[in-house]
């Protein structure tokens, strides 16, 4: 399995002895017995399928959207202060994500807890942006889903193939933008403006670069998920895939929301 820039997809199991199953990529012409090849699994666990990935990802994303809408509504209605939701959501989401990554074992309760926490966090932030720039929330949501769908089409059609060289480029770019973000944060604490987050031309270009890197990261996520499906790992690992995709979606959404605010601030 190729390395992914998403920490959730690193050090994954590479097979369960179950053969191959059609996944994100092209179907295997030698599929038999409903997609299985060789002997059935002896552990009692069936192999992961594309349906498992889609279902678990939809459940995770759906929970995030529901909690996010509620959180945003509470902020916009003035019922709660934004930080009352943003801070707990951020802390819980960060802690749970670290537990999931270092535990290296798929867990539906943990993934769903992460999704709910991220919903509170994103909803609180979205409520603040929506109060300042009416309509920006829907634009950011549609933009995020649009990028996700576009990259899925790109991956499925093979328009851009995930090669080792591309993988290294995306990982390097991801590390680069993260270092710049952290550097900008540290410098801002000392009153130094690097221009990466002030809404100016440099900030707009930087946000576009970050969005591009996040979008291409989906290709690595899809490839990692496809390798899991081909390897026939147990179906419970679909929760791990859902978690990995959610982390990229959250990153992309926040950056699109930020970029849209730059454009609307100049109106």
TrEMBL record:
Membrane-spanning intervals of the chain: 58-76, 82-102, 109-129, 135-154, 166-190, 202-225, 237-254
UniProt keyword terms in alphabetical order: Membrane, Transmembrane, Transmembrane helix
Q: Which InterPro entries match?
A: BaxI_1-like
The keyword Membrane is annotated on this UniProt entry:
yes
Domain of life the protein comes from:
Bacteria
- Ribonucleoprotein in keyword set: no
**Protein name (database record):** Bax inhibitor-1/YccA family protein
């Amino acid at each position: 399995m190729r390395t992914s820039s998403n920490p959730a997809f690193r050090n994954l199991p590479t097979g369960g002895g179950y053969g191959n199953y059609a996944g994100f990529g092209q179907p295997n012409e030698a599929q038999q017995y409903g997609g299985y090849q060789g002997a059935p699994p002896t552990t009692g666990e069936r192999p992961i399928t594309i349906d498992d990935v889609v279902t678990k990802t939809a459940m995770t994303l759906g929970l995030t959207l529901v909690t996010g809408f509620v959180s945003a509504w509470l902020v916009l209605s003035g019922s709660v202060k934004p930080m009352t939701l943003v801070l707990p959501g951020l802390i819980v989401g960060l802690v749970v994500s670290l537990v999931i990554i270092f535990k290296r074992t798929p867990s539906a309760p943990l993934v769903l807890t992460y999704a709910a926490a991220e919903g509170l966090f994103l909803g609180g932030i979205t409520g603040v942006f929506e109060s300042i720039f009416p309509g920006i929330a829907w634009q950011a949501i549609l933009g995020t889903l649009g990028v996700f769908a576009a990259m899925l089409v790109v991956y499925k059609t093979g328009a851009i193939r995930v090669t080792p060289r591309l993988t290294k480029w995306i990982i390097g770019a991801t590390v680069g933008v993260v270092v710049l973000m952290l550097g900008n944060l540290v410098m801002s604490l000392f009153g130094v403006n690097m221009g990466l987050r002030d809404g100016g031309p440099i900030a707009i270009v930087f946000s576009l670069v970050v969005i591009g890197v996040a979008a291409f990261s989906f290709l690595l996520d899809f490839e990692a998920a496809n390798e899991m499906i081909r390897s026939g790992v147990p179906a419970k690992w679909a929760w791990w895939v859902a978690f990995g995709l959610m982390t990229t979606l959250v990153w992309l959404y926040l950056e699109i929301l930020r970029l849209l605010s730059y454009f609307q601030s100049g109106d």
